[in-house]
Amino acid sequence: MGEDWSATANYEAKPVLQKETKGRFFSGYIIAILAAILFPVFAKAREKARQTACLSNAKQLGIALMQYVQDYDEQLPYAYFEAPDQKYGMQKLAPYMKNEQIWACPSGTTVVSGFYASDGLPARTIAHGWGVDQYHYPYRAIYSAAIKSLNDIKQPAASGVFFEKTNAVTTMPYVYCPFHGPTLTAQIADRHNDGLNVSFYDGHAKWRSKQSVLSGADAQRLWLHDNS
Using an 8 Å Cβ cutoff, are 74 and 150 in contact? Predict the structure, then answer.
């Protein structure tokens, strides 16, 4: 009578199947660990790229301001809309910029600012992630202000003019000096690796951590709270 080879074959196949199953389990486990490690790295790299693109926009804003003040005897454009053209200061820089996309932040496309009608355009709200300090930047002609022109700023390379904003307090293109409005600091953005880009009165721009913007050793000068 012949031997039952099928039983032997089934018996010998089980250890092989178990090894394959265990191998697939460990391979999947390793892939999951690598994904958990690498995905945050890739996300941070993507955000760094957006931060760099936004920094380029900040530099172009600074250059636009420098060109504006050269054309207007060093006078800064008022933050709020003013006669005779009824434009916000940001709108007055538009002729010196390539396009409105400079105002939008790649990491904050839902951050907007509302503008009144001008240049034949209706009142509108657009992607716009920048604000000037409502306390120290010249706000309106009807208000007295210590600073009205670039010449009034003692250290332009250390003083910020355009700060990245949120819509936490207002959709207007403003931020608020943390020394005057400590309860309004949510308007100051931190979307770039816990920080924001800042454009300075000499035209350069750089990234700053939000913590340093709020309370760093040079924060008072940055906000022109100290203009000595």
Answer: yes
Could you give the CA distance from residue 144 to residue 122 in angstroms, rounded to a whole number?
A: 30
- Please give the model's pTM, rounded to 2 decimal places: 0.80
Q: Report d(CA 203, CA 107) in Å as an integer.
A: 22
H/E stretch holding 19: helix 5-71
* Structure token digits, residue 99: 């396009």
Q: Are 146 and 121 in contact (CB under 8 A)?
A: no
Q: Tell me the CB-side half-sphere exposure of residue 133, using CA atoms within 13 A.
A: 28
For residues 159 and 152, is the Cβ–Cβ distance under 8 A?
no
Sign of CA dihedral 212, 213, 215, 219: positive
CB-based contact 64:116 (threshold 8 Å): no
- Cα–Cα nearest to 77, from 177, 157, 149, 176: 149
d(CA 199, CA 219): 14
pLDDT tens track for 137-189: 998 877 777 899 999 999 999 999 999 999 999 999 999 999 999 999 999 99
